[in-house]
Amino acid sequence: MLVPTAPLIHKCGSTNFLFRPTPAHCLSDVEMWRLKYQPRLPKSLKGEVAWHAGASSQCRQRRDIPVIQDRFPNTYGLPLVELSQGSTAVEEKQLRVGIVFCGRQTPGAHNVICGLHKAVTGLNGAVLGFVGGTKGLLAGQVADIAPHLSTYLNTGGMDLLGRTVDKLDPSDTPKVLEVAHQFNLSALVLVGSSRTQSNAARLAEALHAVPGAPVIIGVPTGIDGALHGGGVEASIGFDSACHMYSQLVGNTSTDAASAIQLSQIETERLLADLVETELKQRKQAGLSSAKFNPVCSFMGYQARGAMPSNFDCDLAYTLGFTAAHLAAHKLNGYLAVATGLKAPTEEWAVGGLPLPSLLVLEEDRHSSPQIPSSRIDLGGKLHRALRSGTTCDARPAVLTIKDDPGYLQRMGRVQQQLAEVREACKPGCPAPLLEIAAQSLATLSDVFGMYHGQMK
């Protein structure tokens, strides 16, 4: 692949951040093919969008209410927000939105920018990208990202803007406000997982009553799905990571079935051991004093930069749109969310979840409230049901990859094909196409009936 070249963006203070977008001629055939997928939006985000205030929110644990209410007097108890088709007067007339990649890399993050840019420009606004994550934000490193979005749609990672550290201290608030005023920002979108959104909650509270301050909007991302629950059904990137892990496990299982001895060799660890042995010998001979601390690859690296699944493409694009409309209505301290995610994308409900409603206090009760990382619960009901061989509704759930390494890959293909049929057979589709689909599905249903009859 050719190495893209681009100049440094303007220097600010003592920092230099490279802004080196990948040009179209450097994309592979697969990447070019992936650009052709057009992310789908819920019906509620098509056309004019109105917002509606719902019930007042409260934090997850009742015992935490007095403390969190005291520390977040301006933003605690904000109402849940739902977006729908309709017309509500836009509060911000000159919408200028900054976006920062704060959390770890994740598939679909670029679609957040694409959706945000599409919605904001539709409202006659502008989007500024901060290059270099939170450090780039504090240094005021901005770039015009609009000319480059066409080559980053449906891609993995966060390389368009990059990231540094996923932390903003309360002491950084004055600098954030200074940068916001410098670029006349009306909103700031922070993309990341639980730590990022905890920071976003504190920043939103600190800026809530400051005249001319930007509203703070969060977008949940993360390959480990740590930010979920409490009204968050899924974080961007988790679905893609699961598909990637399934593929890697399936590939490894296939390799083991093909040549079991070869599959037992951990090549990178073998190389690390050989290098370590050689350096020890050189050190003993006085030929080298080099230190060697090898880090072997882990699957997270593969997942972070993976091409996002269609689900994550749609979810990220949708939440980018959602963030834009929350910003346009000056709704400060909200996390953009979508619910009903088991349904087709067009039927998703979207809106804003007040960030303080996700906060909890640690056991010592004196530390700053945080949004907890809700990782997969291996002792939970779903996992216990899976291990026992049944799902929660008592249907068989045993999946032996060793016996059928291609099961998960085929499952993904079937789900994609079903989605394509659903998309093609919407009301208004050609009658011949509908007839073909009906006959094909009827035949498939008959086959299923015969299969289930044999299993009884």
Major beta sheet, strand line-up: 1-2-9-8-7-6-3-4-5
- DSSP strand (E) fraction? 5-15%
Structural class: alpha/beta
What is the count of DSSP helices, taking H or I runs of 4+ residues? Answer: 14
Radius of gyration: 25 Å
Number of strands: 9
Distance between the termini: 55 Å
- Backbone shape: globular
Kindly list the characteristics that best describe this protein.
456 residues, alpha/beta, disordered N terminus
Structure explained in plain terms:
Helix 3 (about 110-120) crosses helix 11 (about 310-330) and helix 7 crosses helix 13. This protein has about 450 residues and is an alpha/beta fold. The protein contains 14 helices and 9 strands. Strand 3, helix 3 and strand 4 (about 125-130) form a beta-alpha-beta unit. Helices cover about 40% and strands about 10% of the residues. The model is unreliable at about 1-15 and about 390-405 (pLDDT under 50). It has helices at about 30-35, 65-70, 110-120, 135-140, 175-180, 195-205, 240-260, 260-265, 265-285, 300-305, 310-330, 380-390, 405-425, 430-455, and strands spanning about 50-55, 80-85, 95-100, 125-130, 140-145, 185-190, 215-220, 335-340, 350-355.
Explain briefly what this protein structure is:
With 456 residues, the protein is α/β, with parallel strands linked by helices. The protein has helices spanning 29-34, 65-71, 109-122, 133-139, 173-182, 194-207, 238-258, 260-263, 267-284, 299-304, 310-328, 381-388, 407-424, 431-455, and strands spanning 49-56, 79-85, 96-101, 126-130, 142-143, 187-192, 215-220, 334-339, 349-354. The chain has a nine-stranded mixed sheet, with helices on both faces.
